[in-house]
Design goal:
Protein name: NAD(P)-binding protein
Number of domains: 1
CATH architecture: 3-Layer(aba) Sandwich
GO cellular component, one term: cytoplasm
Oligomer: single chain
Radius of gyration: 18 Å
Shape: globular
Family: Belongs to the short-chain dehydrogenases/reductases (SDR) family.
Number of strands: 8
Pfam family, one: adh_short
Largest sheet: 8 strands, mixed
Helix content: 25-40%
Distance between the termini: 41 Å
Number of helices: 7
GO molecular function: oxidoreductase activity
CATH superfamily: NAD(P)-binding Rossmann-like Domain
Strand content: 5-15%
Length: 272
């Protein structure tokens, strides 16, 4: 793997396995990316990095200890990328939990929202300034069809009978985060604080509407081999991470830019 500084900088959360790992793999195959492998577990992250380095891919990569539940990790990640590269071209909010840990239902619900919605929002908020430094910035939020309210109410949907309320509810919040990011940073619509409608102050702490260039996507990878849950395996019909990420690369390459700001999957879209 070459040590030459790449032109495009990408950060992937949850990059030590599954979809996140395969995103890193395919970006590094292109040879034009420097990839930050975000991993909350440094041992697993180091193993993933060593695996990629052993493949002698033309791109470059490094491990970033990043737990989206940690404000310190988030702030350190943003500061490090800003200092070393001055910009970020693509953010993949990929880390998620389907079966959150907790002794009570309240704890499990709180953990699901913290990992699947709050953490990605705080990370994205910290990275917006350096995303704006890119000539073609993208935010690709890896969501789930389980977060579609429309599909939840449609009896013919394969998601209709699936419970998983903490996961589903937190993914709905994640989808709303995507929509809000698109309106502000994709369309450049000035945002106001609901308590101070005349302030022109948005939730990022800066006046909105200053940059309409960030392309924001909400993508459902479908049932894919990963560590998300015990059934995300090929023997249960899960799609390979390689095939799923082939579709994600279409977002990277601009092939689906006409669908920016929408909730999409491998071959179409979903109702929010």
């Amino acid at each position: 793997m070459t040590s030459v500084v790449a032109k495009e900088i990408a950060l992937i959360t949850g990059a030590n396995s599954g979809i996140g790992f395969e995103i890193a793999h395919q970006l590094l195959q292109k040879g034009t990316y420097h990839v930050f492998l975000g991993s909350r577990n440094t041992s697993k992250g180091s193993a993933a990095l060593q695996d990629l380095q052993a493949r002698n891919l033309p791109g470059s990569a490094e491990l970033m200890h990043l737990d989206v539940q940690s404000d310190d990790h988030i702030n350190q990640a943003a500061a490090y990328i800003r200092e070393k590269h001055g910009k970020l071209d693509i953010l993949f909010n990929n880390a998620a939990v389907a079966l959150p840990e907790g002794a009570t239902e309240r704890e499990r619900m709180a953990a699901a929202f913290d990992i699947n919605a709050t953490g990605p929002w705080l990370l994205t908020k910290a990275l917006i300034p350096i995303l704006k430094k890119s000539e073609n910035p993208r935010i690709i939020n890896i969501s789930s069809g389980a977060g579609s309210i429309g599909r939840r109410l449609f009896p013919e949907s394969p998601m209709y009978k699936i419970q998983g309320i903490p996961y589903r509810a937190s993914k709905v919040a994640f989808n709303m985060l995507t929509a809000c990011l698109y309106v502000e940073f994709g369309l450049g619509v000035k945002q106001t604080d609901a308590t101070e409608p005349e302030s022109g102050k948005d939730d990022t702490g800066a006046v909105g509407g200053t940059d309409a260039r960030i392309k924001v996507f909400c993508f459902d990878p479908g049932f894919t081999v990963s560590n998300l849950g015990p059934y995300n395996k090929q023997e249960f019909g899960a799609r390979s991470a390689e095939k799923t990420v082939d579709s994600i690369m279409e977002l990277v390459e601009g092939k689906r830019d006409a669908e920016v700001g929408k909730f999409i999957h491998n071959s179409g879209g979903y109702p929010w």
